[in-house]
Amino acid sequence: MKKVLPIILVVTFFMAYLSDTSFGKVTLSFMIEVGQGLPDPIVEKLVKEFNDSNDKINVKLEPIPGDATDYEMKIMASLLSGNPPDLFTTHDNTNFKYAKERLLEPLPKDIADYINKNLSILLKGAIRKSLSYNNVLYGIPWLGDWVALYYNMDMYRESGIKSPPRTLSEMMEHIKKLARWDDKGNVIRSGYTLRITGHRAGIFDKFVSFYTAYGGTIINKDLTRFLIDSPEGEKAVQYYLDILYKYKADAVTMVRDTTAFAQKLAALHAREPAMVVQLKTRAPDMKFGINYGVVPFPREKATARNAAFIDALVVPSNAKNKKEAWEFVRWLLKPENYTRLQIGMGSIPLLEFVVRDPYFSPTGEGRYMEVFLKEALWIDPPHANFYEAKTKIGEYLERIFYQKIGLKEGLSEGVKEANSILNR
């Protein structure tokens, strides 16, 4: 028995080693936010291709479900505990926060030079602002996301409207004509499916398009006070309330967002480009350019901006396998791999060789992306508490939209609490 025990221990240790190293390979932990779904199929496909082609490294995807706040808490806990993943994706412009606390590894020089050389010409400034801290790049561009206006072309033709709106005033007239009601006056098709519930930071982000379209400024220059409790803020909130309660062209009881648009329960919707990819499976009978189109979000003033997010793929400064992680990143950045990644995720193309791919040409399947590339953008400022603060405002906006608090009181209280978070 004394001889058997050491043998059992050795075998157990060896099996654990093989499991952890995938039969001799170094296993990289790759943590990725998936919301309520699964990783994009293209991400899984590329990881498998890398694993099959590399005899020294095995990348293990670790999809994290839940909302963005849950994901950030899990990431931060792993970083501070000293047991981080080898790679993870950031979200909602939070890259700088990790970099500021020295929790991320700067890009190796060869990768940084490659990124700087190939950045999208139109988006260079936005990408560098999102991925840098003190002018040092801390991640590669992973996903670009901001909204444009989707419109159902069949419903436009049915309603006798010749072209999509260019101003908010014009859009309101369209919304009233596009909505449909039953014989009791209940809306059964929304003229516009408003973002009024769900992830609170997302409520705020969609509101930015309306607020800045009226000329509103989001925050002061020293990042100590939100400015949406203003005439422009009140006007933007009233726009929502008029759709919901004055014209009853949408309702809190209606199916919302992408689901509503895919099920033909809404004529207009502001959404990111990934919705084009999603509609291919969720509404295969809806064809881009035939049944629906995408145009710039309407504006009243030139100050209009859409909230933009450029997520990054990063390596923690205390990752156990940094050398191998950067090897995977280099493989992923090869044009044939990175282009497939961006197209498959429905990302706004962030590197110039992706922009120039035939898929995005004027006659290509991804020609809709030209609209997104020309949008004016708002990028969250580099403030450690901004994400939490805007989430608080989103919470109050939701309460206003559901008539649980008055317009002026809701904006005032929301800004007051958000400012407290900014100035902690």
Enumerate how many helices there are, as a single number: 18
In terms of DSSP E residues, the strand content is 5-15%
Q: How many E-type strands?
A: 13
Query: What coarse outline follows from CA principal-axis ratios?
Result: globular
Secondary structural class: alpha/beta
Q: Rounded to an integer, what's the Rg over CA atoms?
A: 24 Å
For the sheet with most strands, the description reads: 6 strands, mixed
Low-confidence stretches: 2-21
Amino- and carboxy-terminal Cα gap:
63 Å
Arithmetic mean of pLDDT: 92
Share of helix, binned = 40-55%
Give an overview of the whole structure:
With 424 residues, the protein is α/β, with parallel strands linked by helices. Helix content is 46%, strand content 15%. The chain is built from 18 helices and 13 strands. The strands form four sheets. Strands 1, 2, 3, 6, 12 and 13 form a six-stranded mixed sheet that branches. Strands 10-7-11 form a three-stranded antiparallel sheet. The protein has a two-stranded antiparallel sheet with strand order 4-5. A hairpin with a 2-residue loop joins β4 and β5. The longest helix is centred in the first third of the chain and has 18 residues. The N terminus is likely disordered.
How are the secondary structure elements laid out?
Blueprint: H1 4-21, E1 26-35, H2 41-53, E2 57-65, H3 68-81, E3 87-89, H4 95-100, H5 109-118, H6 124-131, E4 132-133, E5 136-137, E6 140-145, E7 148-152, H7 153-159, H8 168-178, E8 180-181, E9 187-189, H9 200-213, H10 231-246, H11 257-262, E10 268-271, H12 274-282, E11 292-295, E12 306-314, H13 322-332, H14 335-345, H15 352-355, H16 369-373, E13 377-379, H17 386-401, H18 407-422
Parallel strand pairs: 1-2, 1-3, 12-13
Antiparallel strand pairs: 3-12, 4-5, 6-12, 7-10, 7-11, 8-9
Helix pairs in contact: 2-14, 9-10, 9-17, 17-18
